[in-house]
Amino acid sequence: MARARVIVMNSALGPLDYRVPRGMEVEPGAIVVAPLGPRQLLGVAWEPERLATEEVGDNRLRNLLAVADAPPIPAPLRRLVEWTADYYLAPLAAVLRMALPSTSALEGGRTIVEYRATGKTPERMTAQREQALERIGDRQGLIRELATIADVSEGVIRGLVKAGALEGTAVDLDSPYPEPDPDHAPPELTRDQAYAAGILQASVAAKGFEPFLLDGVTGSGKTEVYLEGVAQALREGKQALVLLPEIALTEPFLKRFHARFGVEPVAWHSGLRQSQRRRAWRQIAAGQAKVVVGARSALFLPYPRLGLIVVDEAHETSFKQEDGVHYHARDVAVMRGRFEGCPVVLASATPAIETRHQVELGRYRELKLPGRYGKAELPAIAAIDLLAEPPERGRWIAPRLVRAIDETLDRGEQVLLFLNRRGYAPLTLCRTCGHRFQCPNCTAWMVEHRLIRRLACHHCGHVIATPRACPECESEDSLVACGPGVERIADEARALFPDAKIAIVTSDTIWSPAKAAEFVGRMEAHDIDIVVGTQLVTKGYHFPNLTLVGVIDADLGLEGGDLRAAERTFQQIMQVAGRAGRGEKPGTVLVQTHAPKARVIEALVSGDAEAFYAAETEARRDADAPPFGRFAAILVSSEDKAAADETARIIARAAPRVDGMDVFGPAPAPLSMLRGRHRFRLLVHATRQLDVQDVIRDWLGALDWPAKVRVAVDVDPYNFL
C-alpha cells in the first residue's frame, strides 16, 4: 500500500502518515490536501526517511484527498526548510507556511473581477465615500482589498460600484510576465565595477555555491555590478532573486531595473493584492518569473531554477524577523545558495561585523568598490558639539546647521534632516500634575502624531485622539510635548525657512511603493527643498541635487544595552551621509551630538571606518559576543503576569549545566508588557563550538507550562527589548 509522510500546516503537529489512494501520484514536495478530524488542511509530502514519526498501522491511515494543481516544492527548498527549522528552533510547518501562499494560488487558471475608479463623482457623496475614493486613487483590487485600503466597510465600496464611481475589470490570474532582456541597455562600468561584475558573471556561469561580500561606499554603483550578475543568470536560463530591506525601496529599484532590462522584475512584498500574489507565486513556481525583487519573505518562494541571490543593504537589521520564525534573511539566503548551488551576493556600504568576520575566515569572497561612481565625491562630515553650540531655547537645530541649510537653499540645492523618531514628540505629559500618557497594552509612552491629531503606541498600534484636557487632573490645555520627533523638526524648519517646500518621510507617510514613487518624483522635479525623515530615507535613494545632510540627534541610537548599538549608529549615519553629494555637486554632513569624543562619532568624522570596526570587533572578541560567541534569547509571555513569572523561573531552574554555556535571568524584559502580555527574558550565552540548539531543544522539551503561557526562542537575537 502506498503511504505518504506529510507536514500539515499546523505548527502544533509533527509529520503525519496518510494513505495514497489508487490513481493518485504523490512525490516528495507535492502539495496535498489532507484530512485532520473534520477539517481539511494543506500539507506537503516529504521524504519519509528524513522525518521520524510514530509507526501507524495501515488500517488506521486516512486517505489523502487531493494533490494541488501546482508544481511540487523543490528539494533544495525542502532542505532549506529543514535547516531553518532546526537552526532557529521553529516547527517545520511554521517555516513551510512561508513557502505556501493562500489556497487560491493552488487552483488552476482562472480570471477574477477587480475594481478601479472611473473618475465619476457619485451624486450622493458622503464623508466615507470621499475618504474611500481619495485613498483608493488609481489602485485596483477586490472589494475587500479596497475596503481595507480605504478603511471603510465593504458596503461603502459596493455602493460606489453601484453609483458608477468604481468599475469592474477582468484580470487573468495566470498571464505570463514579460521576460527581461539581459542585453537591453548594458551600463558603462568603471574599472573597479567591471572587475567585480566579471567575477560575479563567471561565478554565475560556473553554477556553483559561492558567497560574496560586495563592499562599496555609498554611491559606488553596487547595484549596477550585481545587476550584471543578474544578466548572466538570465543568459544561463536561470532565475535571480534580489532581497531589499524595505518595501519603500522597491519602487526606485523597479525603475532602475526597467532601465537596464527593458521590463520590471516580479515584485513580492506585503503590499501586493491577493491576485498579484497568486500570479507571482504560480509564475515563480513554474520558473516563468525570471527575476524577483522582494522583502525577506521572497526567500522562501519555490524557485525551480535559482541561479543567483542578492541581499542588498545586507547589514540592515530589518532582515531579522522578530515574530513567528525568528530567522535572519541574510544568513538564510547564504544557506539557500548553498542548497541551490548558486552564488550569493551580500551588498553593503557598511557590512555587519559578522559578515566581515566570514571574509576574514576565507568563507566569503570580498569585492570592493572604494570610490563613488563618475565625478561624485564622498561628502565631508563634521560634528556639532551641542554642549558648545546648543540650539536656541525651544529649538533642536543648532545654529551652524541652520546657517548651512540657509546657504544650501540659496544655491537651489536640497537638504535632508535625519532623526530616527516618528511623530511629533516621544512623550506627552501634563504640566499641571505631571501625568504621562502610557500605552495601556505596553510599557511604552504614547507618541504624539500632530498631523493626524493622535497619540499612538509604536509597539502595538494602540491609538487615541489627543485629548484637550488631562485625564488625571482634568486641566485643559495643559499637555506639553517633550522631545523632538520628525514632525516637530519639520515645524521648526518651516518656522526658520518659511519659503522652503518641506516633506516628511517616515513609514507613516511612505507606506507603499506607490507613495515612494511619488516622493521620488517630487524630489526629482525639485518640488521638495527640505526632507525630514527617519531611517526610511537613509538607503537606496539617489538625489543628485541633495547636498546637505543634518543628523539631528546622533546619540539616539547609542541608548540602551544593545551590544550592536555603536555599530548600528555608525551604519545608520554612514548610510544617511551617503545621500549627500551623489551627483557632481559636493556634499556636506553635519552631525549634532552631545558626545563628540565618542568612538563612533570620531570614526564618522575622520572617515576611519577600519579603525572603528577593528575596535568594535576586538570588544566583541573580549566579551565572547557574536561572531565569536553565541546568544539565544528565551522569551516567556502571558496575559497572566504571575504565570509568566513562574514559568520563567521553572525554565531557569531546569537549565542544564553545560561546559561553554551560561544562562542569565529570568528578568522582566525591558519592554515588560507588549500587546497586553507580560514578558520575562532569559539569555543563553554559549561558545561557538557548542551546539546550543540541541541543548535548548532537550532542555525545553522536557518541561511543561500552562497553555496560556507562550515560550519563544530567538537564536542570534538582534532585539534585546
Structural class: alpha/beta
Report helical residue fraction.
25-40%
Overall pLDDT: 90
Main sheet strand line-up: 11-12-10-13-14-9-15
What's the helix count? 19
Low-confidence stretches: none
Query: Quaternary arrangement of the chains shown?
Result: single chain
User: What global shape is seen?
Assistant: globular
Please state roughly what percent of the residues sit in beta strands, choosing from under 5%, 5-15%, 15-25%, 25-35%, 35-45% or over 45%: 15-25%
How far is it from the N-terminal to the C-terminal residue, by CA?
53 Å
Count of distinct strands: 30
The biggest beta sheet is recorded as: 7 strands, parallel
What does the radius of gyration come to? 27 Å
Structure, described:
- There is one protein chain.
- With 721 residues, this protein is an alpha/beta fold.
- The protein contains 19 helices and 30 strands.
- The strands form 7 sheets. A 7-stranded parallel beta sheet has the order 11-12-10-13-14-9-15, with helices on both faces. A 6-stranded parallel beta sheet has the order 16-26-25-17-24-23, sandwiched between helices. The protein has a 5-stranded antiparallel beta sheet with strand order 2-1-4-3-5.
- Helix 9 (274-285) links the parallel strand 11 (266-268) and strand 12 (291-294).
- Helix 3 crosses helix 4 and helix 15 runs parallel beside helix 16 (599-606).
- The chain is globular.
- The two termini are 53 Å apart.
- The mean pLDDT is 90.
Keywords:
19 helices; alpha/beta; 23% strand; globular; 721 residues; seven-stranded parallel sheet; six-stranded parallel sheet
